[in-house]
Amino acid sequence: ETDKIFNVPFDNADVDSAVFNLRLLNKMFEIIKQGGGTVEDEADLVKRSKEVKEKEIPTTSIWAHVELKTTTENEKPFRDFTVNNETFQTLDGIRELALKFSENIQIKDQEKLTTSTLSGEVLSIDYQDQAFLKELHTKIEDEKKSAFELDGSKKVKYNLIDDSDFNSKFKSLWEDYSKTAKTVFRKEVSENGTKSTKAFHSIKYMKNGREEWGSWETMRFQSAISFAASVGAYQNKVTRVSKNHPYLGKVEKDKEAEFYKNNAGESDVYMTSQVIKSKGSTYSVFNEGGSSIIPVASSNDKVNKATKKFLEWLYKGKNKITTEEENNWLTLARTSGYVMPLKDVVTTKTQKLFKNTIKELETKLKDKTIDELTKENTETEAMYFKLNMLRSASVSLDSLLKLNEDKTIAKAMVTDDKSAQMIKSIDSALLNQTRDEKSESKDFNKLLEELRAIKNQ
User: Fold this and answer.
1) Cα–Cα distance between 361 and 114 in angstroms, integer?
2) Average of per-residue pLDDT across 200-215
3) pLDDT higher than threshold 70 for residue 1
4) Are 133 and 147 spatial neighbours (Cβ–Cβ below 8 Å)?
5) Of 170, 203, 169, 208, whose CA–CA distance to 184 is shortest?
6) Which of 23, 183, 218, 267 has a CA positioned 20 to 30 A from the CA of residue 236?
């Protein structure tokens, strides 16, 4: 018999870390400059993209066909447009870059597109509903107000549709999202009786599951930028896992060289912590991601004591899974990419440990070949796995540490059946805006009508 259940946060990871394919960024920046735009050389991502030795884009990606579009009336379409550090510091700044770039490119040599050519986009987003609500919250003046929250009598308030300020900002942002998510190229390709639609989007929302993730789009040179789960650090480039992934398909030995050529390697990908503000926002919003443990209180005291003892060991204890004893939170970080959100763990001391270990591993692995990095059951591959998991943990810890800064908040939302249905409706409406086959934009008033119908069920 049970009396109570509890929800105890167990781990945390960025579900929308900022991931960049540096080769594609370099091509973007070159096209922007060619079109009369300004790309500041001292910007961090500009410098990183220039350092990539291999600049050619694999012909498996539609990005290999992207070129500047000009007209006699407008030979410099990027005139008065500037890319600098600030461009990548806001959610709407990145969306605007995606739209501006995609509107001023064209696809060359279209006759060379095949059914196996991969579609592409400037920006891919794993969890579009969360990205949208996060940006919406940055625009609400009252930082204590959420889209869904409990009132004094523990009932859910649906501020998203009932609060006038929320409703106004919701409408404005929905229309802005509908404008910036644009499909600028779409073509049906036929080959040996097989038909396939190829497209290029400013923004593409991911289906998730077995089909689409930002990490995979980054690895396959489909996305220049992605708001993707940080724990995908071992899948956004060529690794042992991406070579043998059940959803992506195992790469046979005689196909490995081709796989290495057509997918991003270690130097092509850069990942950093989630973007947490929009232009003009007075505070920043941190997106929580991760899982919880659900302890169940028993009427049996002996069971309760055992449960408490296990939880105490899990959160504060140590283990000897390897030959050396280490804290459980560190084992979790280096094997999964998640961070235990404990007071003693979320510290600059832990971050220093992560970053120093990452630097040591990068030094040890910098001269290793891609074959060595991906060969199963070797010390080198084990180190490469640990490196990528610690990168994920470090990125997520960076985000957690920002919560200690003024004007950065974790926006918790109450979720009941109705609010979950509303979020799902937003998610589906966004997803349908950017499908390769066709785009379906939902009018705000129609969406609002759907959400109100859910509330009144």
Assistant:
1) 40
2) 96
3) no
4) yes
5) 203
6) 183
